[in-house]
Design a protein that fits this description.
The structure is a homodimer of 359-residue chains.
Chain A lengths: L1 E5 L6 E6 L6 H7 L5 E6 H14 L6 E5 L8 H13 L7 E6 L1 H13 L5 E6 L2 H7 L4 E6 L2 E8 L4 E5 L8 H18 L1 H15 L3 H21 L14 H11 L6 H18 L5 H13 L11 H9 L4 E2 L2 E2 L1 E6 L2 E5 L4 H12 L2
Parallel strand pairs in A: 2-9, 3-4, 3-5, 5-6, 6-9
Antiparallel strand pairs in A: 1-2, 7-8, 10-11, 12-13
Helix pairs in contact in A: 3-4, 5-6, 5-8, 6-7, 6-8, 6-10, 7-8, 9-10, 9-12, 10-11, 10-13, 12-13
Chain lengths: 359, 359
């Protein structure tokens, strides 16, 4: 087992990574010490991994709340269903939620934990690569609103992140690749050497070779933990972790939610961010080519659906990273060096989007 | 204008108290500096005081969200209506809510501000005595759930509290008295001299004599601000501010929401807490008698509705201040000295409730 720390004063917490963790009674006794537990998971993960967690919780009482599968469940209604389960189980302020699943389960259960009795503890038990390397770390919780993604939510840090790497054995290939996109993002934002390592080891990671996978997860978590420790509430450097996401969210919305996985849209967004960085003179063209090549090598989409430049820009304008009316983008000055800026040539952006997506 | 400070590191904010503040352009320009504002208020306050706020915002654009009047509006649906208004107005992360009204408006609008885009700024513009002395200060926001009061919410500090004392001129007497109960509570928790001052000046405060009213508001806010500064998230001393509230919440629920005002239920709760403190040997009986006398002098109910001991205890058991299965109560060791404890004679509590409320 590897152990990292997210350092946030009294809200600090560990990230534990390794095989067999869900079934460890000592680990769960140490971190989920509350007498009142609610396990939140989805139908697929309940079938595959709840039995393992039940081993880890053997002899302890806990309530369950199983939500349906899918991104379209990331709604206020689902979060309120979790709160109803907390009320029904008479969970007190010192009770705790265990969120067993991917990003949707973690985001929804985390928001329920943030909002129940003005905040109770929760533990992330991520079971997808995307959740293990990105969404379970850093305390962003929330649900979608018909007007946009993640419009309702809270910053609420978990008490621990326990990433049992065994759970990746049942993850579909497509979801593994989608999670890989967030690993690439972490490298692009902060660590050129890690990007080079990914170029050399993408095949091993995607073949689920345990050592390669463990290294990728650990390094991505380290990068995220360091940035979150500097800027918990995304007032500054944490915004860099949105590299590719302004494009990505618009692609998700434009394609229709559920057609494209979040990680796939981010992959395409990373390529667009790199290529636009090259066009606007920030990044050598050869570096942008490396980004495209790695995304393609991972079996991820480098090019966006042809929903048209106009629609794409409209969807990007609705993005909440707009500040004072001017859209800020995260762009690359180097592989391993990102910057959030509103200083870029808008015409060149329009031209690039038109080339890639039609008018 | 008087100015106090709630000291919470980077979340510190001022409390401004005085006449004419809502109409002050400079004050609103200084504290509500965002280019995107949503004013949230209720129908009655919109009619009485929105015109004054519009003077203060003259020349600036802002959106409005007017909710119906009444405690029964303190629901998730109402909060989501505020979020819908934020989405419709395309409010960004640097936008801000102005909450103009009493406790319900502040709690609902504050929870919407806490949850929109994981937290935007808001300013409390309290227009009732209860909100000016208690609910607008300290960052407790939230809504009721069918299973209990305030079960859904967040700690989210306002950027400022601007209490225009002119607004109290239109407050019904019954609501003025209800707010007075929270002033008495503040004195009981922390300041015997202030309690004695209230004994001497209750008549002047309730006759709305400006100097007496201003002193009562200021001192209650100072007490609350000092406690919140020590314990923002109610892990320790802040729980003392719940004096009378465990009884009070149960009385509100038992009487049927809306039949008894929150402040009226708290007034009765303060008397019960004092008299139970006396019965269990913590507080001299003469001190409990002073509490009852002041509550009665203020025209507030000293005795609870006769809903029966059994029902009352059931309702108290559902209260979220239960920890580890044992109900903690805030009791008095002196006027001006409260303690949260689970160490009290349960039989004596049952006997007192039976005397006052029937079996």
């Amino acid at each position: 087992m590897q152990r990292l720390e997210v350092t946030l004063a009294e809200r600090s917490y560990p990230i534990l990574i390794g095989p067999g963790l869900l079934g460890s009674r000592e680990l769960l006794a140490a971190h989920a010490a509350s007498a009142q537990l609610l396990v939140v998971t989805d139908q697929t993960v309940a079938r595959l991994w709840l039995p393992r967690l039940e081993e880890g919780l053997a002899g302890r009482e806990f309530a369950r709340c199983v939500i349906p599968d899918g991104e379209e469940q990331k709604t206020l209604e689902t979060a309120m269903g979790v709160i109803d389960a907390l009320v029904a189980a008479h969970v007190h302020r010192d009770g705790m939620i265990l969120a067993l699943g991917g990003g949707v389960v973690g985001d929804v259960a985390g928001f329920a934990a943030a909002s129940y009795q003005r905040g109770i503890g929760f533990i992330q038990l991520p079971t997808t690569l995307l959740a293990q390397v990105d969404s379970s770390v850093g305390g962003k919780t929330g649900v979608n609103h018909p007007g946009g993604k993640n419009l309702i939510g809270a910053f609420h840090q978990p008490r621990a992140v326990i990433a049992d790497t065994d759970t990746l054995s049942t993850l579909p290939d497509r979801e593994l690749r989608a999670g890989f996109a967030e690993v690439v993002k972490a490298a692009l934002v902060a660590d050129a050497a890690f990007f080079a390592w990914l170029e050399a080891h993408a095949g091993a990671v995607l073949a689920r070779e345990p050592e390669a996978l463990a290294h990728a997860i650990r390094r991505a978590c380290e990068i995220k933990a360091a940035i979150v420790a500097r800027d918990e509430r995304e007032q500054g450097p944490r915004a860099l972790l949105n590299l590719g996401h302004t494009f990505g969210h618009a692609i998700e919305a434009g394609a229709g939610y559920g057609r494209v996985l979040h990680g796939e849209a981010v992959a395409t967004g990373l390529v667009l961010a790199a290529e636009f960085s090259a066009r606007s003179g920030r990044l050598p063209a050869a570096e942008a080519a490396r980004v495209r090549a790695l995304i393609l090598r991972a079996g991820l989409p480098a090019d966006p659906p042809r929903i048209g430049r106009a629609r794409m820009q409209e969807l990007m304008g609705m993005d909440k990273k707009v500040a004072g009316g001017r859209l800020r983008l995260v762009l690359l000055d180097a592989i391993g060096g990102a910057a959030a800026t509103a200083d870029y040539p808008e015409d060149a952006l329009g031209a690039l989007l038109e080339e890639r997506m039609g008018t």
